From TrEMBL:
Gene3D superfamilies according to UniProt: Aldolase class I (3.20.20.70)
Annotated GO MF terms: alpha-galactosidase activity; galactinol-sucrose galactosyltransferase activity
Biological source species: Neurospora hispaniola
PANTHER family assigned to the protein according to its UniProt record, in alphabetical order: GALACTINOL--SUCROSE GALACTOSYLTRANSFERASE 2-RELATED (PTHR31268:SF32), PTHR31268
Superkingdom of origin organism: Eukaryota
Record has Hydrolase as a keyword: yes
InterPro entries referenced in this protein's UniProt entry, alphabetically: Aldolase_TIM, GH, Glycosyl_hydrolases_36
Family as reported in the entry's similarity comment: Belongs to the glycosyl hydrolases 36 family.
Cross-referenced Pfam families: Raffinose_syn
Keyword entries, A-Z: Carbohydrate metabolism, Hydrolase
Name of protein: Glycoside hydrolase superfamily
Length: 874
């Protein structure tokens, strides 16, 4: 129950601002038993650089704020606490370091936030047109001590406000057929010193994971992407580009040395000497600089890819993929057997699971039969086991795949797609040397290297795989068999295995044919209904996932969901949010993995999946479901199909440089709809291990414009702010989350109408208010003040539920006398229109109940149109 201080700009973080006039806001949470009027707060600040060369520290008192200047409260404090608000305005010319001290009154000692809460100094950078990255500077000015042996050249950036270079690093060809060449050279120190750094490292062969740090780069693993924030607020992004039909066939990654320099580490599998490539961009914000290197990488891939035979075939097959499968495959609720049913699958277990879902009225569209349906040779652990034959394991699946899929579809019409798991090379150790597949197709024996970061996964040793000459036939035969069995999609796992091969000759001859033929077969037989898994390896990213000109595929975005490892749950969401900073630029839809709807972190995972913009798969043990949580993620269309609500812009971390161990909420930014009229979304998650309160500015939401008015709604509390603009104190949102807590904040642009009898009126459609991302249920919304004085609000939705309409003057109005609501042109039962119990300015329209009571039929449409007529002028 100690006093707790939260500020904006925040402590221990770096805040970039455009205006030299900075208002500091502080919220002090104290027990109600302590006298509230005597508390004092002071800002302790210093101008100058962040590296210790500061001017003298100055103390400025913070004044108590009036009620009209309070930040908006989305989450109330605990019952025994009260909140006090303080503010002060300062002029900051370039940079400012600050902290806070507080005391109960003049007769008490000052207490420092650093000592009481463990929060370090905050740092403000005001962008006043610093010269770093300006047109008169070149790469050696930005990377101090740039290695003179490197060849670099500038390029035109496709991202406004950024500059771009490539660096070429010479490297010899592979030493022989069994040994690749590795080159390790220093690059230099970004900016000559920096405030923060962020990287995506190869956590192990199949996965990327985030790392952050402060003034010294300390990479524990090889990094694919790095970013560095300068003391002037500029961002320098480095991307290691994997060779695509250029002189180097391998990968380019980053390390650091004992001198604090970034170093470049290159693997060349080609028999020829060549050069590795590093892409460098600088900009005023991370997203722009990051986009600049990714756009340029895409251009390099496209140029190299156009000449390939596989690319031509992919383009032709892509042209035949119908667009309507996107909704069915992406937007339907999915179920995966992995955590639910475990290993040693049987047809009986699968049927029990889908029957239990139906018994609980959980209508999935996509079923994934995960690992262990295959006929494999059971010797050793799974990492040494190979695949015998296409057909399912005969004892566990006595009627084969065809029998199981046929039974599923005959009993459960809602299941549109049955997909099956398999490894890219067949099984974890490829093909069983003595199995039927080894007799039917030519095979070779290859050597895998150990991954030192995964001692519990013995990858080393030999494995049998299909030879290059038969890869096309193998995949064509296999996927034809699956298609004829009724299977409609695949989850192709263990793709990283191609990156474990030791021989450079094997790597350059087999990696690309495996990836290409898998893609071709998945398009030919399943229309692209494929999930790429364990595939965040550089060569796979740049060869398979970055190029355009083919349907967007689902791709797993991080390491697995581990239901029985409590510490893994917040990290899983953290890793996905940061990995999406890179994967948002790939031609994929990031898949944040399955999860279970029961358990302490079930809602945490559900909210993360909803803001991710990707698919949602559950893996509940049969009979163990949280039906309310499932209902928050999904809705039923007028035709009776269960769908999820995916934001149109993918979710990704908003604070790249904040460390996992920092006392800060994870903020995941997404957006739905068109520019200006769409809905900015922010998922907030407490990964810190203790309760946290933060002040979140409206201006931090993607797509918010200073000239517009908005309301912000909390999914968890149901609270809605007053109408705000980014310049008002009320645009600061006070968010409080317990350990493991979460919320989804949605920002709705307001329409303004000047009326004679009511004055200025604000209105907005809020989407389906019972859903986590119910704003994404809206297909279109509009409003107009008619000549007869009526206000007309129209909303088209993709699913049924409770539609929320914000009306600023609703408490003054009578629903019975001044409203009329129609669905599909018909008036709805009056009792289905009520005032929201959490906010008296929100009108709730229970479309789902009205639809059933009215006996409406979807007809040719799969949408529902709701019209609200409101009389203002008498």
């Amino acid at each position: 129950m100690s006093p707790f201080v939260v500020t904006y700009p925040p402590l221990e973080q770096i805040t970039q601002l455009k205006d030299t006039s900075v208002t500091f806001h502080a919220v002090l949470e104290v027990p109600k038993t302590l006298a509230p009027d005597s508390w004092q707060l002071a800002l302790w600040h210093s101008t100058g650089s962040y590296d210790g060369h500061k001017a003298s520290w100055v103390e400025t008192p913070l004044a108590p704020s009036g009620q009209s200047d309070f930040p908006s409260t989305l989450h109330n404090p605990a019952d025994q606490l009260t909140r006090l608000h303080f503010a002060v305005n300062l002029t900051v010319q370039s940079t400012l370091t600050f902290t806070i001290k507080f005391r109960q009154g003049p007769d008490h000692d000052w207490r420092w936030v650093r000592n009481e809460q463990g929060l370090g100094d905050g740092y403000i950078v005001v962008d006043v047109g610093a010269p770093e990255g300006s047109d008169d500077e070149d790469l050696p000015d930005l990377i101090h001590g740039l290695n003179p042996s490197l060849k670099w050249s500038p390029h035109l950036s496709q991202c406004p406000g950024t500059r771009l270079w490539t660096i070429e690093v010479p490297v010899d060809g592979a030493r022989d057929d069994d040994n690749s060449t590795f080159t390790h050279v220093p690059l230099g120190i970004p900016w000559g010193g920096f405030l923060r750094w962020f990287a995506l490292v190869r956590d192990w062969s199949p996965w990327l994971a985030p790392r952050q740090g402060r003034s010294t780069v300390e990479l524990d693993k090889d990094a694919l992407l790095c970013s560095f924030l300068s003391s002037k607020g500029k961002h320098l992004v480095l991307l290691g580009f994997a060779g695509i039909n250029n002189a180097v066939d391998g990968m380019t990654l980053f390390r650091n040395d004992e001198f604090g320099r970034v170093t470049i580490h290159i693997r060349n599998d080609s028999a020829k000497a060549g050069s590795g490539t590093v892409l460098v961009a600088v900009g005023d914000n991370f997203e722009s600089a990051n986009a600049a290197v990714m756009y340029h990488a895409r251009g390099l891939v496209s140029t190299a890819d156009r000449a390939g035979e596989s690319s031509t075939k992919l383009e032709k097959l892509s042209d035949n993929v119908e667009a309507n499968w996107y909704e069915n495959w992406y937007d339907g609720l999915g179920y995966c057997t992995w955590n639910a049913l475990g290993q040693r699958l049987t047809a009986e277990k699968v049927m029990t699971a889908v029957d239990a879902l139906a018994d609980n009225n959980i209508n999935i569209s996509n079923l994934i039969i995960d690992d262990n349906w295959q006929d494999i040779d059971y010797h050793g652990d799974q990492w040494q086991q190979g695949w015998n034959d296409f057909e399912a394991e005969p004892k566990a699946f006595p009627d084969g795949l065809t029998g199981l899929v046929s039974e599923i579809r005959s009993k459960h019409k809602n299941i549109e797609h049955v997909a099956v798991w398999h490894a890219l090379l067949g099984y974890w150790a490829g093909i069983a040397p003595d199995g039927n597949l080894a007799k039917r197709y030519r095979t070779i024996e290859v050597v895998r290297g150990e991954d030192s970061s995964r001692k519990n996964i013995p990858l080393g040793g030999k494995m049998t795989v299909i030879a290059k000459e038969d890869i096309h036939k193998f995949y064509d035969d296999f996927y034809r068999f699956l298609s004829e069995s009724g299977v409609a999609g695949v989850k192709t796992d263990a793709q990283f295995m191609v990156d474990t091969w030791v021989s450079p000759k094997v790597r350059r001859e087999l990696i690309q044919p495996y990836l290409d033929n898998w893609l071709l077969a998945s398009l030919r037989y399943f229309g692209g209904r494929a999930i790429s898994c364990m595939s965040l390896s550089p060569q796979i990213i740049f060869h398979t996932q970055l190029p355009r000109g083919r349907p967007t595929m689902l791709c797993r975005n991080s390491d697995d969901f581990f239901p029985d490892v409590p510490s893994s749950h917040p990290w899983h969401v953290w890793a996905n949010a940061h990995n999406s900073l890179l994967t948002q630029h790939l031609n994929i839809l990031p898949d944040w993995d399955m999860f279970q709807t029961t358990g302490a972190y079930a809602g945490f995972h559900a909210a993360a999946r909803c803001v991710s913009g990707g698919p949602i798969y559950i893996t509940d043990v049969p009979g163990q479901y949280d039906l309310d949580l499932i209902k928050q993620m999904t809705g039923v269309t007028p035709r009776g199909r269960t769908v999820i609500f995916r934001p149109s812009v993918l979710g990704r971390s908003l604070d790249q440089y904040v460390n996992y161990d920092d006392l800060s909420l994870l903020k995941i930014s997404a957006y739905n709809g068109r520019a200006v009229t769409g809905t900015p979304i922010m998922g907030i998650f407490n990964v810190s291990g203790r309760p946290l309160t933060e002040l979140v500015p409206l201006a931090r939401f993607s797509g918010v414009l200073p000239s517009m008015w908005y309301v912000v709604r909390s999914h968890q509390s149901g609270k809605v702010t007053v109408p705000v603009q980014t310049t008002s104190s009320a645009s600061l949102l006070t968010a409080s989350l317990d350990n493991g807590g979460y919320d989804i904040l949605s920002v709705f642009p307001l329409s303004l109408y000047e009326t004679e009898s009511r004055g200025r009126v604000y209105v907005a459609s809020l989407g389906l208010v019972g859903k986590m991302t119910g704003c994404a249920a809206m297909l279109n919304h509009s409003s107009d003040l008619l000549e007869n004085g009526r206000l007309f609000i129209s909303t088209r939705l993709k699913a049924l539920g409770v539609l929320g309409i914000y009306i600023s003057h609703l408490p003054e109005l009578s629903i019975q006398d001044e409203f009329m609501v129609t669905i599909q042109g018909q008036p709805i039962p009056p009792h289905t229109v009520t005032v929201n119990r959490m906010d008296s300015h929100v009108l709730d329209i229970d479309i789902e109940s009205a639809w059933k009571e009215m006996g409406l039929d979807a007809g040719w449409s799969n949408e529902v149109e709701v019209k609200v007529y409101l009389t203002f002028e008498k």
